[in-house]
């Protein structure tokens, strides 16, 4: 799927400024530096997901306390809880930054212990998975790499590949920030993603998220009024038809 725009540190800085703005490039190190002082002062807060109250997650890594990871990580933890003892694949290394994990991790670009550095398009495991989970990763496909072709088509291909790796009654779960990748937003607005179940969360306050419909979520701007995603979609898929 092409080389990544932030394979080098300099390229990563250029990419970050292009995607998030120079202002956010200057604010990010401040948010990271002061996170140990800010996080203990934050009120404990919860949000609703599928009829259950989940706690917002605060962590200094990747400014989790200040962005959509605050809801994405607890949602991912909830799906892992439901799949305890089953075969799990995470596409894109996210959860290991917050604690020990015991599932398979696939990440084309990131290197580290226990990470399979492989493209999902080339991945041929011997087993099938009961849960495939991906946190804020699919929006980058065809958008933050140098691959030719339409990002939406490449996202659809990656979804189909993941669904093909599911065991019987397996589930693919994606968390997707809205307003970031225009091609992905169009797919969602036009009902082309192919998910079986969806949930949309909108950020309504510094520590507040609520369930909304697709129209309200897609109307949110990325980066305004709060940093990074102001709405996320949780998309759930079953396996491919036989």
Walk me through this protein's architecture.
With 242 residues, the chain is of the alpha/beta class. The chain has a single domain, classed as Rossmann fold, CATH 3.40.50. It has six helices and ten strands. It has helices at 9-20, 22-38, 69-82, 151-164, 182-189, 214-218; strands spanning 46-49, 52-55, 88-91, 104-106, 115-116, 129-135, 166-177, 197-205, 208-212, 231-237. The strands form two sheets. The chain has an eight-stranded mixed β-sheet with strand order 5-4-3-6-7-10-8-9. It has a two-stranded antiparallel ribbon with strand order 1-2. Strand 1 and strand 2 form a beta hairpin. It is globular.
Task: List key phrases describing it.
242 residues; alpha/beta; Rossmann fold; 8-stranded mixed β-sheet; two-stranded antiparallel ribbon; 6 helices
Question: Rg, please?
Answer: 17 Å
Task: Give the overall silhouette.
Answer: globular
Tell me the series of helices and strands, N- to C-terminal: HHEEHEEEEHEHEEHE
Q: Any idea how many domains?
A: 1
CATH class: Alpha Beta
Distance between the termini: 27 Å
CATH architecture: 3-Layer(aba) Sandwich
Q: Outline the low-pLDDT stretches.
A: none
């Amino acid at each position: 799927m092409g080389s990544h725009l932030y394979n080098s540190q300099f390229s990563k800085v250029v990419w970050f400024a292009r995607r998030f703005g120079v202002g956010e490039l200057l604010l990010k190190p401040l948010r990271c530096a002061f996170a140990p002082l800010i996080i203990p002062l934050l009120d404990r807060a919860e949000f609703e997901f599928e009829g259950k109250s989940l706690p917002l997650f605060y962590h200094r890594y990747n400014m989790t306390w200040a962005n959509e990871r605050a809801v994405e990580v607890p949602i991912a933890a909830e799906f892992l809880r439901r799949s305890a003892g089953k075969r799990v694949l995470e596409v894109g290394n996210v959860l290991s930054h917050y604690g020990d994990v015991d599932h398979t991790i696939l990440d084309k670009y990131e290197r580290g212990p226990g990470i399979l550095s492989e493209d999902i398009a080339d991945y041929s495991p011997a087993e099938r998975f009961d849960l495939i989970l991906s946190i804020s990763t699919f929006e980058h496909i065809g958008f933050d790499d140098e691959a030719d072709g339409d990002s939406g088509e490449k996202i659809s291909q990656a979804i189909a590949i993941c669904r093909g790796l599911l065991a019987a009654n397996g589930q693919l779960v994606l968390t997707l920030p809205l307003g970031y990748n225009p091609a992905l937003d169009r797919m969602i607005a036009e009902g082309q993603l192919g998910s079986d179940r969806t949930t949309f969360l909108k950020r309504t306050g510094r520590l507040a998220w609520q369930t909304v419909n697709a129209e309200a979520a897609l109307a949110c701007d990325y980066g305004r009024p709060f940093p990074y995603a102001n709405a996320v979609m949780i998309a759930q898929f079953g396996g491919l038809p036989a």
